[in-house]
Please model this.
Amino acid sequence: MMYTSNTFVPNNYEPREADVVFLGVPFGATSVSKPSIYGPVMVRQSLKIVEDFVPAMYEKIKVCDLGDLEFVPGSFELTAERVRETAKDIMAVNKKAFIILVGGEHSMTLPLAEALEPKTIVHFDAHGDCLPDYLGNKYTHQTWAWHASRFSRIIQLGVNTKTPGEERIVKERNIERFGFAEFIKKTPKMQKPVHVSIDIDVFDPSFIGETGYYEGKATKEEVFGALDKIGADSLDIMEICDDKLPSKSGFLAADIIQRVLAKRFL
Model:
């Protein structure tokens, strides 16, 4: 018997028979913050050793770890096309699969959403990411929500930055913002399918360590309380910028993944 592993799951199922499909996208070309190309590695290694729901999860949930996308360095357009094609190929063989994408910079949420076509996107972030362009670039980690609002209703939680012109954009586009207490108490009705997109910098720095920007103020109780109110159909966790293990943000992402999957499948 060979005691080896190339993923975080004991049995790596084929996409067509999996309940959950995990995909890493280590792309980080448009962000001006700390590079997030090691995000998928941090989360996989954290999922291997986190203890909360693991035994029950692996007994009842079939997980496929597809590995990491072969991204095109420096090209949003070519990498985005690969994300779209990969997500569509997954759905072609398994329409019921719960897709989890781990990045990598937040721009990659856009091609995933274009492929999945959710009616609602619940966006956890310290930043709105809804500018029409950023530093002259149309497609970046700061603009994906502006593009996604063309085809999805976007609900934002945790935004506390004041980007010039963004308040007007929020009013004009299909974007709504809530505080955590308001959202948890009076959860708005959400048309399905619902995609959840989490920028790890939504959290207060004490929860995530040295990663990206530092405007986040959310606590685990706030984020997890909101997640418990959402029936997610897909998930991405982005901007995990640690470059060494153990990873504080990697463990937090692992907790989020298991929390969301436990609510959906257990």
